[in-house]
Design goal:
There is one protein chain. With 332 residues, this protein is mainly α. It is built from 16 helices and no strands. Helix 4 packs antiparallel against helix 12, helix 5 crosses helix 15 and helix 6 crosses helix 7. It is globular, with a radius of gyration of 22 Å.
C-alpha cells in the first residue's frame, strides 16, 4: 500500500508538470521575448524565487500558533508548492495534497494539516481581495483624502475573518444539526465527527489568535507586494504608462477571475480579465496580448517549475528521528 501511495504521489508530479506547460503555453512566448530587455528577462523570474521567503515564514508562524516548531527552511517546499497550486488550479483545488505532505514530511497530524491549509487559503483569499481594493484606492481615481480614508478602512478590515469565524461558531451552536446528522450512517458519522472535531479545534486556535492574524496579514501583504512588483516590471517593458497600483488591480482581478471561474487552471478567464483591464488603463490590444503571453513565460512558467521542484523536495522530506535519551551513568 505504501508503494502504491508513493507511486501515486510521484505520478501527480508529472501531471503537475503537464498542467504547468499547458497553462503557460510556452510555445507562444518566443516572439514576444524579443521585446524584453535581457536584464529584465533575468530579473523577473528571480521574484518567483523570492516569494519563497515570506511564504515559508508565514507557514512557520501558523504552525507556531499550534505549538508546532519547525524552521522556515524546513517548511519552504510545502509552502511554495501550496502557493503555486492555489493560483494554477481552480478554487485552489490542488491544495488537497498539502495536508498529506505535512503528515509525510513533518509528522504533523492530518487534522492540523487540514486546519493550516483552510486557515491559510481562506484568509489569504480574503486578503487578496482587500489588496485589489487597496490598489484601486491608490490609482489616483479618487481625491487623496478619500483614498487615505479608504486605505485606512481596508487595512482595518483585514481582521474581519476573525470576527466572521467567531460569529459563525456561535451561530452554528444554535442551529438544529442533530436532525441532519441522523441521515448519515453511524460509523461514517463517528469518523466525520472525530475528524471535524480535531480540525475544528486547531482551526479555532488559529482564527481566534489576534497575534497570528497581525503577522499573517503582514507576511501575506508582503507576498502580494512582491508579486505586484514582478508583474509591474513586466508590464512596463511593454506599455510604460501603467502605474504600480494599476498593475496591482489588473493582477489581483485577473487572478480572482481565474480562481473563481471554476475552469481548468482558469484558462481563458484570467487572460480575458487581464486584457480587458489593461485596455481600460490605456494599453492597446496588441500590447495587452503581449503582456499575457510574457506573463506565461516569465512568471507562470518559472513559478510552476519551482512549484514542481518544491513538491518533489517535499516528497523526499522525512520527520527527524526522536532524540535518544542518554543514561545518567554515561553522562557522568
Amino acid at each position: 500500500l505504501g508503494a502504491l501511495r508513493n507511486l501515486a504521489l510521484y505520478a501527480l508530479a508529472f501531471t503537475f508538470l503537464g498542467l504547468v506547460l499547458w497553462r503557460t503555453r510556452v510555445w507562444e512566448v518566443g516572439d514576444s521575448l524579443a521585446q524584453v530587455n535581457p536584464f529584465v528577462l533575468t530579473l523577473i523570474p528571480l521574484f518567483s524565487a523570492l516569494l519563497s521567503l515570506p511564504l515559508a515564514l508565514r507557514q512557520r508562524l501558523i504552525l507556531n500558533a499550534l505549538g508546532q516548531r519547525f524552521s522556515a527552511w524546513k517548511l519552504l517546499p510545502i509552502s511554495y508548492y501550496g502557493n503555486t497550486v492555489s493560483f494554477l488550479t481552480p478554487m485552489a483545488s490542488g491544495e488537497i495534497v498539502r495536508p498529506a505532505l505535512f503528515q509525510r514530511g513533518l509528522n504533523l497530524p492530518l487534522s492540523q494539516g487540514v486546519a493550516v491549509v483552510l486557515y491559510e487559503r481562506l484568509y489569504s483569499s480574503f486578503l487578496l481581495g482587500v489588496t485589489g481594493l487597496l490598489a484601486l484606492a491608490l490609482t489616483g481615481a479618487l481625491p487623496w483624502t478619500i483614498s487615505a480614508a479608504l486605505v485606512t478602512l481596508l487595512l482595518t478590515a483585514s481582521g474581519l475573518p476573525l470576527l466572521a469565524y467567531w460569529a459563525a461558531r456561535h451561530l452554528s451552536a444554535r442551529l438544529p444539526l442533530a436532525r441532519l446528522e441522523r441521515l448519515v450512517p453511524g460509523r461514517l458519522r463517528d469518523r466525520l465527527q472525530e475528524a471535524t472535531r480535531e480540525s475544528g479545534t486547531a482551526l479555532s486556535q488559529l482564527f481566534l489568535s489576534p497575534r497570528l492574524a497581525v503577522s499573517f496579514c503582514l507576511t501575506t501583504y508582503l507576498t502580494f507586494l512582491i508579486m505586484t512588483l514582478q508583474f509591474w516590471i513586466l508590464v512596463r517593458e511593454v506599455t510604460p504608462g501603467i502605474s504600480l497600483s494599476e498593475a496591482g488591480v489588473v493582477l489581483v482581478a485577473s487572478n480572482l477571475a481565474g480562481i473563481l471561474s471554476g475552469l481548468p487552471l482558469g484558462l481563458g478567464a484570467t487572460d480575458a480579465a487581464m486584457v480587458s483591464l489593461l485596455g481600460a488603463y490605456g494599453a492597446g490590444g496588441p500590447a495587452s496580448a503581449t503582456v499575457v503571453v510574457l506573463m506565461r513565460g516569465l512568471i507562470n512558467l518559472p513559478t510552476g517549475i519551482l512549484g514542481l521542484l518544491a513538491y518533489l523536495t517535499a516528497l523526499r522530506q522525512r520527520p527527524a528521528p526522536p532524540l535518544q535519551s542518554v543514561p545518567a551513568a554515561s553522562r557522568e
